[in-house]
Write a structure and sequence with these properties.
By secondary structure, the protein is α/β, with parallel strands linked by helices. The chain is built from 8 helices and 12 strands. The strands form 3 sheets. It has a 5-stranded parallel β-sheet, with helices on both faces. α4 links the parallel β4 and β5. The two termini are 21 Å apart. It comes from Actinoplanes campanulatus. This is DNA-binding response OmpR family regulator. One of its GO terms (biological process) is regulation of DNA-templated transcription. Keywords: DNA-binding, Phosphoprotein.
């Protein structure tokens, strides 16, 4: 899941980003409204965690612009006000959810995850390919019944390949869906992650390289 945090309180923005990354999400951060607005249009995020009172460009304007564009990106609006009128106003602008500060981080994570599921085509919780099983909700994977010890990035790459249901996923698409904006687009990190994932998956090989195109799961993927 790709998330953009737009928050001018840097300590809070960085804390939110660190916490979401620990949950396996790819997170970018903008510290003012203008930067956040630009980033939201350059990259298709699943969720934007958007502070309402921002310098440069107000959060209300960013939210309205995103809604008008027709994007599938979901907006979780943050505000220092917990009044009912402010919540209603934020939702009327097109925000998908609303959270008042201070908030419990577990609640923030749960709301971001819920919005992320709404931002992408509905995928079943469990994906299988041959003897490989990946449970998206529990974030665990196993092959031939043996648990796989995967890093967050390895799990997310495998998840994206399985969700493609045999289709080819390019390195660029994997970078966009699994890594954040700080990743060098010319890096070999995708290839390295694919190689380590292959080793952990074992034999017979499941991840196939399609020269000049990307990667795919070489056996039929079944949803359950």
């Amino acid at each position: 899941m790709r998330v953009l945090v737009v928050e001018d309180e840097r300590d809070m923005a960085d804390a939110i980003a660190r916490g979401l990354r620990r949950k396996g999400m790819a997170v970018d951060v903008a510290y003012d409204g203008l930067q956040g607005h630009e980033m939201a249009y350059v990259t298709r995020y699943d969720v934007v965690v958007l502070d309402r009172d921002l310098p440069g460009m107000h959060g209300d304007e960013i939210c309205a612009a995103l809604v008008e564009s027709g994007t599938l990106t979901r907006v979780l609006m943050l505000t220092a006000s917990s009044s009912v009128d402010d919540k209603v106003e934020g939702l009327e602008l097109g925000a998908d959810d609303y959270l008042a500060k201070p908030f419990d981080f577990k609640e923030l994570v749960a709301r971001v995850q819920a919005l992320g599921r709404r931002a992408t085509p509905v995928a079943p919780p469990v994906l299988t390919a041959g003897d490989l099983v990946l449970d998206q909700s529990r974030r665990v994977a196993a092959r031939s019944g043996a648990p796989l010890e995967l890093t967050n990035k390895e799990f997310c790459v495998l998840e994206e390949l399985l969700k493609a249901k045999g289709g080819v996923v390019s390195s660029e698409e994997l970078l966009d869906r699994v890594w954040d904006a700080n990743t060098d687009p010319f890096t070999t990190t995708v290839r390295v992650t694919i190689n380590t994932l292959r080793k952990k998956l074992g034999d017979p090989p499941l991840v196939e390289t399609v020269v000049g195109a990307g990667y795919r799961i070489a056996v039929p993927v079944v949803a359950s």
